[in-house]
Amino acid sequence: MPAKAYWIVRGEVSDANAYARYVALNGEAFKKHGARFLVRGGRAQTVEGEGRTRNVIIEFPSMDQALACYESAEYQAAKAQREGAAEIDIVVVEAYDGPQP
Fold this sequence. Notes:
The chain is α+β, with helices and mostly antiparallel strands. The chain is built from three helices and four strands; from the N terminus they run βαββααβ. The chain has a single domain (1-40, 61-101), classed as Alpha-Beta Plaits, CATH 3.30.70.
């Protein structure tokens, strides 16, 4: 069974209306690729480093699904609605399944 993967998203929204259009459209891509939101906005406090006002963590069944979602026509169409409305960083990372402290 492949390891799960996550989108770690941090951003600053400058145009709430355009960003809302992006959010309204991105669900199709996420559903198609088995995504599950673990964090979607909400209260946050930066305790070290530079913070952003918008934080999202999305879980995917695998790294392949996480990358396929980003590259999909559905997500790219949604992303086009976000253009100029937000400054976003997205990192796709595979889950860790090794020893724990």
